[in-house]
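// run 5 | inverse folding | seed 20
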């Protein structure tokens, strides 16, 4: 991952930190909202025998991808915040 270079001619560390913090919080909110979506085998059983198993795996994959994005944003956020201290 290429992190932003904090320097006097670029975007301030404060501005970058705030931006990445907001982005991370939005992704974490998306994770929270996704966890609230009704998810039940009754919505899949009429498709085929493997539909529910596939749907569970796909849902888990969505959570993993969102967590990975949140983690990457947190790394950038921390990098930028280190320049404020």
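// decoded
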């Amino acid at each position: 991952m290429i992190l932003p270079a904090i320097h006097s001619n670029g975007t301030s560390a404060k501005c970058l930190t705030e931006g990445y913090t907001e982005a991370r919080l939005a992704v974490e909110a998306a994770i929270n909202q996704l966890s609230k979506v009704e998810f039940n085998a009754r919505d899949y059983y009429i498709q085929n025998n493997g539909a529910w198993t596939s749907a569970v795996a796909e849902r888990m994959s969505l959570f993993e991808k969102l967590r990975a994005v949140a983690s990457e944003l947190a790394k950038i956020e921390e990098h930028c915040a280190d320049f404020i201290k």
